[in-house]
Amino acid sequence: MKNLFEEVRIGDATLKNRLGMSPMTRNRALPDGTPGELAAEYYGQRSSFGLIISEGTQPSDDGQGYLNTPGIYTPSHIEGWKKITSRVHNEGARIFIQLMHVGRVSHPDNTPHHRQPVAPSAIAPGVEMYTAEGKKDIPTPRELGRNEIKEVIQEFRTAAAAAIEAGADGVEIHGANGYLVQQFLSENSNLRQDTYGGTIENRAQLAIEVTKAVIDEIGSEKTGIRFSPQGTLNGIEEGDTNIEMYRYLIGELNKLNLAYLHIMHFGNEPLLQEIRQLWTQPLLVNRAGRPLEQLTMDLDNGLADVATVGIWALANPDFIERIKKSAPLNEPDLNKLYAGGAQGYVDYPFLKA
Fold this sequence. Notes:
- This protein has helices at 39-45, 75-90, 146-165, 180-185, 200-203, 205-218, 242-254, 269-278, 297-300, 311-315, 319-324; strands at residues 8-10, 13-15, 19-21, 51-53, 94-99, 118-119, 128-131, 134-137, 142-143, 170-175, 223-227, 260-264, 283-286, 306-309.
- By secondary structure, the protein is of the alpha/beta class.
- It is globular and about 60 Å long.
């Protein structure tokens, strides 16, 4: 695993190692979306990772889906994130804030304005959402008008500027996991008849326009994007054209010289190899569920420049030290992933000196 601990450059940031912490929702922000008091400790504890990608962070009221997730579009949000980025930088790591607009994966009970969710088309995802009153069916969303799509793109731009003001090294556009960007990409969630629907090029347009807007605001060297090709989370079915979609989309985005592309990999090895050939900038790959002994597989094979991990990072703030010493890993407390305060958040034990 020696190559894990080599420096690597993404955009204008140099990472101290090739391990990244994947974005993971923790539901511990204040009701107004300001990161909670323990958030700086949580991220600071995990700053032995070369790169930290924050939990999904909404760029607007409409962008929120879950209870107590952070935002990055008000002065209070910016001040809260400053505490986090300062702590992470003091520990020698880099941090990108993930911009997550959930689209239809929301419920009026969970948002500040209690409005109907928005989406490319008025099609419910067919999944449930946790609310303060328990699990509820997600309602049918409202189809975004063309002018509203332009407003969404502006929300990403504004949020990206706010993230940089808060001290982040960059932002990651969330185009995965069945949220708004992937809803536009997918055949079962986008039935539009205008220039944002129908053809592959049209369905890819939102992802490309959001990326260009963010680049225009903060620079390509501070902009990353995440996709989950062939993923089916949150009711998404990309359809028979999905491979052609990603060929086109990644080819177009490759022209923009982004800091990185982050792939949540679901097992299609030929597709991952094709993405590696199409993408000439740094590639981050997350393989959920892989055994620890395969941690460096994609680095060793040249398929990735950075390996990202999720649940291991959550339960092991000193994951890098444990890897170096071949020490056993903590087991995650699955009952406290998405609720509570310090327990299951900042109280996982470190290796004893």
